[in-house]
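Q: What structure does this chain adopt?
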Amino acid sequence: MLATPAVGLWPSLVLMYLAVLVGGYSLLLGLFAVLGLGLAALARRSGLRRTSLVAVVLGVVTVALSPVPVAQGWRTASQEDVPLSLSDYFSLPSLGSPLETVTYARPEGEELMLDIRRPPPEGREAGPEPRPAVVTVHGGGGVTGSRTEDVPWSAWLAEEGYVVFSIDYRLGQRPLGQEVTADVKCAVGWVEQNADRYGVDPDRIALLGRSAGGVAALLAAYDDGDPRLAPSCDVRDTGVEAVAAFYAATDQGGLDEWRPPWWRPSLGDEYDPAGDRTENEAGPFLFTSPTSHVDPADPPTFLAQGGADQVTPPEQAELLANRLEDEGVPHRLVRLPEARHGFDGAWGGWDTQIVRHELREFLENELAD
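A:
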């Protein structure tokens, strides 16, 4: 069942991703501004003085501001010792077709699908099977989205040598994260049960989630036996060796006052930010907060968070990183000072390049044979 997004959600999402593209490709914006200055000069020669003056002012401001995200990206890359590529900046993500699309579960009669991608035979990581696997979980606030949104990451991971399973899950469920997490666990169990069929090492499976999908991925990885987060299908094991989450809300109870009005309906009408947050049925957002499930047995965790995120407060990643530190869980937090929510929508941008480099190293280390 596809849920209907909250009123005003789509225009806001369009503006949000437009901001991502403008910030991620500010260098291109500057080049277009220079072109605009040339056109303004032609307009002035044609007698359109007022129009050309406005165009010149806008062009000069754009040219002046466009290097700022570029410079910040270089600074972050230098601090993280990550090489950046100008050719990659202008590149588009790979969109290879999935090997197969299958139904992995039917909770409450709803058919849930996943796409499977395998490394190309000529890939640099094409070694003997079985291979490590990554299960990807898309974002969308729990009310919208589909597995197709993960295609850039899924295709890239397959090229890196992983068998990738991009999953759909139930949308519009309450409380946010409960049924989604149940479906994610079901998908992980399905992958383990079908490991031989797809050449997967069942002991080397990782989860990768973005936004709301990151919340569910973290909850599924930090499984502590809570029956309210049980798998939505009959599977034996749902454990993973590593988990990665981008711009994920790790403390659900602290979001309502911070998020803009157009986003709040996705949190559910039953949530009262000023209400009781003890572990009971009246406080559902406590048990769907990853920070509430951290313990020393949790798998290594990779977090990526933008400092200019307009949906998930940057402090959310810090909260989880601190909890992981306290419990002695290996983790990596990549801070991107100028990145916005959904920064990886600009696939060639510096922030996405930094995260790809760091994620590659993280997965290679944690899923080593």
